[in-house]
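Re-running the complex after MR caught last week's input typo. The corrected sequence lines follow. Everything else is unchanged.
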Amino acid sequence: MLGEAVPRKEDIRLITGRGLYVEDLQLPGMCYAAFVRSPYARAEVLKVNKEAALAVPGVIGVFHGSEWPELRARLPELNGSVTLTSPYIDHINIPHHHLFSDRASYVGEQVAVVVAESPYAAADGVAAIEVEYEPLPAVATWQAAMKLNAPRVHDGFDNVVAHLKHRVGDVKTAFAAADIVIERRLETQSLKCMAIECRAVAAQWDAATGTLNIWTTGQFPYMTRGTVAGILGLPEDQVRVIARDIGGGFGLKGVLYAEDVIIPVLAYHLRRPIRWAETRNEHMISSNHSGNQAHDVRIAAKSDGTILGLDLKLYKEVGAYDHFDMMLQINTVNHLTTHYKVPALEIEGWAISTNTPPGSPYRGAGRVEAVFTMDRVLDAIAKETGLDPLEVRNRNIVTPADMPYRNGQIYRDGVPVEYHDIDFPLLLSKAAACVDYHGWRDRQKNLRAQGRYVGIGIGSYVEAGGLGPCEGSTVKIDTQGRISVFVGVNSQGQGHETTLAQICAHALGAKFEDVSVFGGDTRLMNFGFGTGASRVAVNSGNAVLRATGTVRRKVVNLASRILGCSEDEVIINDSIVAVAGARQNSITLGELATRAVRDRHMIDLGGPGLNATEFFYPNTVVWGSGVNMAVVEVDKQTGAVEILKYVVVHDCGLPLNPLVVEGQISGGFAQGLGIALGERLVFDEDGQVLTGSLMDYFMPRASDVPEIQIEHVIFPTSDNPLGIKSVGESAPNAPGAALSAAIEDALEGRINITRLPVTRREILAALRTI
Amino acid sequence: MKHQISITVNGAPYSREVEPRLLLVHFLRETLHLTGTHVGCDTSQCGACTIRLNGQAVKSCTVFAVQANGGDVTTVEGLAQSGELHPIQEAFHECHGLQCGFCTPGMMMAVTQLLDRYPEPTLEQIKHQLDGNICRCTGYHNIIKAVQVAGKKIRAREARVGLS
Amino acid sequence: MFPAAFEYHRPTTLHEALALLEEFGDNAKLMSGGHSLIPSMKLRLIQPEHLIDLASIDALKGIRVDDDVITIGAATTHWEVESSRDIKEALPVLCEVARVIADPQVRNRGTMGGSLANSDPAADWPATIVALDAELVCRSQRGERVVQAAEWFQDLFVTALMDGEILCAIRFKHLPPRTAAAYQKLPHPASRFALVGVSAAVTTDESGRCIEARVGITGVHKHAVHAREVEQSLKGRPFAPAVISSAATMADSGLEIADDIHFSAQDRRELCRTYVERTLKQTYQRMLDCDFQGK
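Corrected-run output:
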């Protein structure tokens, strides 16, 4: 069962239209919210004239913060609750983020909310509202925000809201000893996660049970519970947050937004269920974005291609409110050296506020930037030394003989980074073999002679996943023999209901069909930390394994007494508990569970019933890894890039379900392709979004995505009982590096590609020089 | 002024009074409570709202309900017949052609038309015919597989019916 | 997104539609497939008080191939053109254009007349309408008026359609013997509109000399245009790759081309020339293959 490619359990309701996404919720007496949003990147909100909106048929009310004090509450400081303050940070001073305030700090910030009897009437209300603004000077880029005398994003706060520093080894000596010194400015543009479902929230005060029910598209339901309960002064158990079917997350939904609190507060006060669903237009202007990130990097290397040292200055746009302190920057730093040895490293980083929406992670969360930098550095060394890029990598790679390998970094959970149970050279050589690296190198010359521009590129990533602190699971067998697995995390499409059921069925000896997994409901588990940071399989998976193990011990103990055998003789298979050997003595899990309800012996096993709750606390993160190789051809007249071959070799330890793992890689690759070749959120200098709809913002479609070859290399890890590494965020990390390198190679190295996405504009400019 | 409209949805006739501005997708979701059809982009790019109207795949976020008056609509809820999954649904399930499932109903409705028009589609035809549907999770590889598998299933089913 | 309220009218005859148009004037908007109009209404960029839906007027629909002319009703959908056996037989380049417009769902609803009346500078039809010197048949309560394609596109989203008029049909002449035609586009990565789209129709004499060349370009200028200098340069010369390449260098002459977020103005000029060259070379190849319109 474990490791088998079984189709997913959750599919059936989703393919029959019976999924329950937040916007699908329809309750008696429901009303609908729509937001008035700032048209200015920075402005004083002088007056909200409600009268015209209140006269619109169907409008129930207009609110902008003065109505109830809760509407002026602050969002929690560290919005991503899994964030841990890193030892690298030496300065942090982040402005407060209020639900409503008199100051708009980005285009799209909420200024007022209309509640109406229909979504149409709510939109009419928004159209009727007149807001008087006093526009103020704004800064739309981190470069502008860092200028001397630049306008402040927030009064009383510096635009640099946080700063970090870290050093490994002696960088000065490294540069003094270098044969080669290379300098680059490498840059990645801001992106939108672009789940097909936009954000939504619904809330209902259930007077019968005294519960405020909240339905959310968020990745962290427990954060919503704690915050709303705190703001309304309700006990946490009177706030129930449900996040069942979610149409994709990818990081953007891993944040508590103002709307997630405003809607429940209104539902509580108005005593009516309220639903709000973001339009794509709102999503594009007001939901979080990943933020521009730039690296000024200097590399010291020997003439044989070995790296001596690296100096990195990291600039990150964090938008109007920095809810993740320097999590993304530290992710970049922690993942920076990927598969390679960098004996001396000096890093300095800045988090810079701008008048754009708040920043938040996009799948990969700083790793794309790390991979892009490291592989561009290696390619620059290859160019400078005349060595083949593959050879430069082989000369710097961390080998199995170096394991366990410590690169001198401290992960953001405070634990020193250590690689083990990984074979980087194997990943690299396997990728080279699969893509036919040397064959293409030979063919490349002939093709160029024919006027064809073919190039090869390499991208190597590591992915630390399974970030703690922990996750828990309750496993229980009911009297029908059905097994429920409760977890504190919810799915945005990852397939928890299947993979976690596989773990339970495997560990218990139950039929897969008998196991149901439930997550995304704060009433089911008291604690949960959420879905993000590629953490669910490792944390919740091992929690399910532990809880199932405890239940299994109860089953075995009870069964041995009922069946009259020793515990060693009890076997469980296909949900039947039997005695090993010749005797045909058996009992079903359901019959056993029925006995367990009243059996006095259960006092020794923790009480009635066959159930248990256990938690898994990882010591630190676990390192997955992989290599991508790309072969591309550039059309010399149009600059169009065609991918001729693409290989992904990866190691995520034991795949729980290869179907799901490959699905993660396929989908992540397509996102990486978007990052490499066209996705970007463009703001003008006034902070207005220029790519504000799917008419303008490129997302790959079926005809844009080439075939890829996926190769699994399996090194189980000793870090956790399941032997698994994470996979969720791995696939988007390397396509940017591999494809940009391949394009640069196809263009005979005439330009240094230093920005993602690679644009047709720069390709065409380079082609003019050939 | 409201308009009286009559629309057949998944074989059942419905008559309702609607505002002219009510979009067909909202008529299906909010008036008829058929929430399997989703809204993803509002600008007729993503295709999550795809349904069949009078046999044609259309983006129901870009059609007013009044325009569909007298029409015949099939939504994702109408794909499975008497509890049995449609071959396209089976194929999406078997091939892991969905992750979050949000684009899936519209995607499958687009595939119904694809396989009607191209019963044995080439890879190029599949990709071209899926141009109106965006998926953020799967990278499309398994969706394409699902289309190929569904095509085979439909042909096998038709062969069985032909034999009997 | 939710459009503002409006009154809905669904006339069943052209007469009725023209009367409504007369009655409501500027407060009314005509809707054919609605695939440009409805998104604009959802964004509330357009808020008509009266919406006149042309979908039930049979006179605006259908494809008719006569000996002298091919007539396509304005409310004929892109898919109806794409899939029409008659068009495939008589003027298959129209199928070729239709099949690369937007996506299948949009092609099922969007109409040729709607696209031409909207006159998006990046729409696909206009290049071909121009290249094939189509005639646009307009009706008002005053009667019928026929506009030549070259005069139809006047400015950004501005056509020769006058107040009170409805575009009823588009008429194409059959292509003369030894005429090859083709359409190629570079789609916008997100919207799939044409960043540049080129339609070409070239006629040669028996010796292979070009006697007529018509090239329409969409996507680069504020509206679709003839590439007059390319056409002039080809006429009277042997229709062959070297001549095509040299003629194509004039493709962007006289066009107003600016930078956009994807390309520099220079890129767009060069892409315009490249696509003119490639489309003409495709027509040349089709002549060689005796498959004049890529059936």
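None of the earlier attempt is carried over here. DSSP finds five helices and five strands in chain B. Chain B has a mean pLDDT of 97.
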